[in-house]
Design goal:
- It is a single chain.
- The chain is of the alpha+beta class.
- Among the domains are: 88 residues; 80 residues, no CATH class; 200 residues, P-loop containing nucleotide triphosphate hydrolases (Rossmann fold).
- The chain contains 19 helices and 18 strands.
- A hairpin with a 2-residue loop joins β5 and β6.
- The protein is globular, with a radius of gyration of 29 Å.
- The relative contact order is 0.09.
Amino acid sequence: MAKAFFRLQKFLRRTQFLLLFLTAAYLMAGSLLLLQRTRLVIQQGSRGTSASQVLPVLDGEAAVGIMDPRTLQSPRPGPRLLVGTEVMQKLAPDQWHGPRWLMSRNSGLRQLRRRWFHRFISDQEPAQTAGFKATKHTAEHKGTYVGCFSDDSRERTLKGAVFYDLRKMTVSHCQEACAERAYAYAGLAYGAECYCGNKLPAAASKPEECNSECKGEKGSVCGGVNRLSVYRVEELRAGARRRRNVIYRGCFRAPENLTDTFPASLIQPNLTVEMCSEFCSKKEFPLAVIRGRECHCGYPTGRFSLRDGADGLLCSGTHDASGAARGRYCLVYQTPVQDTRCTDRKFLATKSKAFVALSSFPGAGNTWARHLIEHATGYYTGSYYFDGALYNKGFKGEKDHWRSRRTICVKTHESGKTEIEMFDSAILLIRNPYKSLMAEFNRKYAGHLGYATDRNWKSKEWPDFVTSYAAWWASHVLDWLKYGKRLLVVHYEDLKRSLIPKLKEMVEFLNMTVTEDRLLCVENNRDGNFKRSGAKQKDFEPFTQEMKDLINRYILTVDEALRERNFTGLPREYVPR
């Protein structure tokens, strides 16, 4: 007995020494880590970054522990079955970005995490590569620096194409983008915005007023607040790949007096489309209008709205040997210059009294509707999610907290009583479920502007996707009809067909007024940058008969629910008969 007790005592004594050794090692490791972090803060502070900018993120692993899944790139809420049926528990693999305990419903925690994430993606750059990037891109600056110029959202200094890049904007990237589109000047502002144009104002600002560092290029200046760092890129255009596509808009009846309707004109023997387009582009007008030897430049207006096209033969004169009708009609082309009458946008000066949702099922055209609303009203729209790709396309409301009430309305794909009753009113955007399912599947596998591959469509994920998301399409509409306080139902197909009347209806619902010229500008820029690129599959039918039967049942259910609540039913083109 005594021997056994002695052995136990000896073992415990060794254990104490072992625990003491491990504790000391742990403390030493912690001290070394703290010293390393302190050194990193001092080094970054010496490069112009304050310690407070470094403290929110200690390392990549810490970020995972506090990141709000809603702030990642367009996460989608989980699909739910129809109202009155069992809620589906299975979510798509891409919807989970961490353990369930991370998905806190506490708004304070979500706001804290969201602010941290925004600060992280905006301010943090890998310290190891900062010096390399500055050296590399400084050598790549090929344009001639012109100076620092003032810029106002109401009256842009450079009125051509506009590009954004929240994290990777560089001087070279902006120069190349403008040179490829054959513009003469490239200007950078706010460290992340790029503007192109062909004309500069006579007076420049003080050089020190351009003081914003490029987001993707340490040590380089990309303008400032309402200031542009401007480069001349004409020497780059010769070797640049041209993108100056001129789009044929059609044949239209000419207004009574062309010179009064259009602010710039040119008369040229042997006039060609290229000559007229080049002339109007240099004058920074979006329309080039040709009638015989006459070239006119301007905008769509109430006197020349481009809504009622004519037969192309009327512009060719082949139907009339005398050519008498030729003078009454003109050919219209879209130049690469953007119509800037509706591109100025800002946040609301005071908090909105009404908290309005722009709600839709994923793939139903929510981003396109936001583009139309922002350009029509002149105010940014917000988002329940954070999508860096959309921020880079100019949706600055993506970075604003969704409950700030500084935006005209808030994008959401959420459904359910709690999420819906947070809003005072909502625009409910509904699209054909067949088109919505395909659009969302494309987005899931190829981003906002790409197409899923044949391999994706033929995988086992597509049938599972249809089964769960078709139910979610129906439950989304039914939930908003049931719990929404004040609704405006807009059908995507009607918006495409009758853009101006439907957009007016949406703007009035938001208690805003808009001028006719601004609506014409929106119509002229109706597509924005939201058409998918790449080869689209022709005559492609991904739906089996079993899938169609399932979707058709949901369509009939939603159509009946809309009519019961005195709304217009679903468009007849996709309601089963």
